[in-house]
Model the fold of this input.
Amino acid sequence: MAVIHGPPGTGKTTTLVHAIRLTLQTERQVLVCAPTNTAVDLLSEKLLEQGVSVLRVGHPARISEELMGTSVDGQVQNSTYYKDIKSLRKNAEEYFRMAGKYKRVFGREDAQQRAAFYSEAKIV
Done:
């Protein structure tokens, strides 16, 4: 773990890109964070330019449009299974909604049905 701090234009991003590339020669993956989304976007762009595979994590509204394809949401949307994933998510939400309809005090059968809905939602 390291902290690189300094004024703009002093080579922090270049240093990080080199350090990450060297680390990837011996490790499978590297976790990198920065204090701002803009800093993470810049680092991600520089890594992509160097041919490093990047998975950008963060809220989609905070990720630059150019990097959406590297985000988890972007990769899911670009997946050939996106329609299936969307359908499964909708089914799971429906099961959770149905399970949430049961009141706090209910009978044994209602409790079993509620448990079945929650179980089905987790499987989906």
Observations:
- The chain is about 55% helix and 0% strand.
- The mean pLDDT is 86.
- The CA atoms of residues 54 and 73 lie 13 Å apart.
